[in-house]
Amino acid sequence: AKSGQPIAPMFRDECLRCLKNIVTATAAEIVLSSSWRLHPRGRTEVDKVLQQYGIGAVIGATPNLGGGAADRAREVAAWLACPPDQVMSFVVLDDLDLVGLSGSCEVTIRFVRTPAHRGLGPMEAQSATRILLTTRKI
User: Out of the domains of life, which is the source (predicted)?
Assistant: First the structure.
């Protein structure tokens, strides 16, 4: 979003409903890896939108190691290298193709790519839910 404009309009209703379905089915919590994590205003806006849909606030964020797909994949892997003890499973949702870029087999097998033109949809939500429910230990 441009400076001063709300971020909330960038979120699509269908995407948030799909995210809500994942969270409800799996009791998942959200860790941000997107650029929204880099700005306090972005984090606040994300939390507001999630709250409107009955989704819990973001519980953490990946470190900032750069800006491209390879950096994003490494950021996810870095966060996973020292996650809280209670993390039992994870899935990575992103419109960037992160497969193979993190150097982590775990990230690759738990990755669901979302189409950039529409975001998270029912098919991706179903895949994410399946990963969270069937691939438990990290």
Answer: Eukaryota
